[in-house]
Design goal:
The complex is a heterodimer.
Chain A: H1 17-28, H2 36-47, H3 52-62, H4 66-75, E1 87-92, H5 95-99, H6 102-113, E2 119-120, E3 126-131, E4 143-145, E5 148-150, H7 155-168
Parallel strand pairs in A: 1-3
Antiparallel strand pairs in A: 1-4, 2-3, 4-5
Chain B: E1 3-8, E2 11-16, H1 21-27, E3 51-54, E4 61-62, E5 73-75, H2 79-95, H3 110-117, E6 134-135, E7 141-144, H4 153-162, E8 167-170, E9 177-180, H5 197-201, E10 207-209, H6 222-235
Parallel strand pairs in B: 1-5
Antiparallel strand pairs in B: 1-2, 3-4, 3-5, 6-7, 7-10, 8-9
The chains are: A alpha+beta, B alpha+beta.
């Protein structure tokens, strides 16, 4: 049967350093299909999320059916198919942080920057997420800003920190 | 691989350690309700209909994934098992949008048969009414997610028997869906070989050939098991 492919495959640009890095990683793993999760981790580290062409590239190189790659990516919450934004703000809403005012932090960020939880701002600068518990209850309310834990932070302090990050570039 | 003796419903039965309880039951004509089991595919214990009570085990185990051990004492039709089976079948119906009256598989559906087997007359749980797509992009077949029960027989037949790996499962919990390739339309699949084995393996009317009216669908799931047996015979140096 003649097919029109939904996702036409265009080879990844070999000049992209991220592609080189990914290819090196796959070679190092010996293109073993069971190294899929490690390779997806490496790809997400390089791109910040998992774009479709990257998934196609991995699927072809490791000879894993596309459906299985997609199953793995959608099963684990860690992997993301959408851009997370240049800066990420992860607000803990676990019990301790909630009691210490995580809700106010969320509202302050949402109102100041106009980004809803789980979404990314229109200019792709800031992504806001909420987590159940990041295991740092002694630091409540805790926020992870670009992989840096901000301990016992208040709404005004958090907004200032985020503004600092956004203006840095 | 050792000959053992087990007791099913107080009946003494000769079995082997390489057999699952379900295989022993099938071999000895002991009725067992199943949905995700299909001869020729490996068992995953997903549908939870083949539950059995085993002496010394305080929970119900699925017969298809539990191997027989020596002197095992098994009960297959207790009041508790029947109660659980009925709950499970009710939840199957409540989970997606199953409407037998308009389904191509009406009268030839394993979910419908399971409903009759447990004496289903009403469903006590609120329906979820999820929004499900119907994929008609393939030239010959339709994938209707409303009728899917996530037994993954199509996924297993496609990877294990056909070796194409077109089907997969995405997301988790109540958002799980069967997907083709990267959740792209089936008709645009780069892996599908159009063999139609998934259509035969499907226990409900989720995958069916086009140009088919209500109640017309006739499937041959036994074909999969026969195919696997024949392949073993024909490729064993013959």
């Amino acid at each position: 049967m003649k097919r029109t492919h939904g996702l036409p495959y265009t080879p990844m640009p070999a000049t992209d350093p991220r592609v080189k890095q990914l290819d090196t990683r796959m070679k190092k793993e010996g293109y073993r299909p069971d190294a899929l999760i490690e390779i997806l981790h490496a790809a997400q580290n390089a791109w910040g999320y998992l774009p479709m062409p990257v998934l196609q590239h991995i699927s072809l190189r490791l000879r894993i059916p596309p459906a299985r790659v997609f199953s793995t990516v959608t099963f684990y919450h860690f992997f993301s198919l959408k851009s997370q934004g240049e800066h990420t703000c992860l607000i803990c809403t676990g019990t301790a942080c909630y009691v210490k005012g995580a809700q106010q932090l969320l509202e302050a960020v949402e109102q100041t920057f106009g980004v809803q939880v789980g979404e990314v701002s229109a200019d792709n600068k800031l992504g806001v997420q909420a987590a159940r518990c990041i295991g740092a209850c002694g630091l409540a309310p805790a926020v992870v800003l670009d992989e840096e834990v901000q301990a016992k932070i208040d709404a005004a302090g958090l907004v200032a920190k985020i503004k600092e990050k956004l203006e840095a570039i | 691989m050792a000959a053992i003796t087990i007791y099913i419903n107080e009946q003494k039965i000769a079995a082997d350690t390489s057999q699952t309880i379900l295989e022993v039951c099938k071999a000895n004509s002991i009725p067992m309700l199943t949905l995700c089991h299909l001869k020729g595919l490996h068992d995953i214990g997903a549908c939870r209909l083949c539950l059995v009570e085993i002496e010394g085990v305080n929970r119900l185990l699925s017969a298809c994934t539990t191997y027989a051990t020596d002197q095992m004492s098994i009960k297959t039709a207790t009041e508790k098992i029947q109660r659980y089976q009925r709950i499970t079948v009710e939840l199957f119906f409540a989970e997606r949008n199953h409407v037998c009256a308009v389904c191509v598989a009406n009268g030839n559906c394993e979910l419908q048969d399971a409903g009759y087997a447990v004496g289903l007359d009403a469903i006590r749980y609120p329906y979820l009414y999820p929004k499900c797509d119907v994929d008609t992009s393939h030239d010959w077949f339709v994938m209707d997610h409303n009728r899917c029960i996530m037994c993954t027989r199509c996924v297993r037949v496609c990877t294990e028997v056909e070796g194409a790996g077109n089907w997969g499962v995405m997301n988790r919990g109540h958002q799980v869906r069967i997907i083709s390739d990267f959740n792209t339309p089936w008709g645009e699949s780069t892996t599908c070989t159009d063999c139609g084995k998934c259509m035969h393996a499907c226990p409900t009317g989720a995958i069916w050939p086009k140009a088919m009216a209500q109640g017309q669908l006739d499937k041959f799931p036994e074909m999969i098991g026969e195919l696997v047996e024949k392949r073993k015979l024909l490729t064993a140096g013959g």
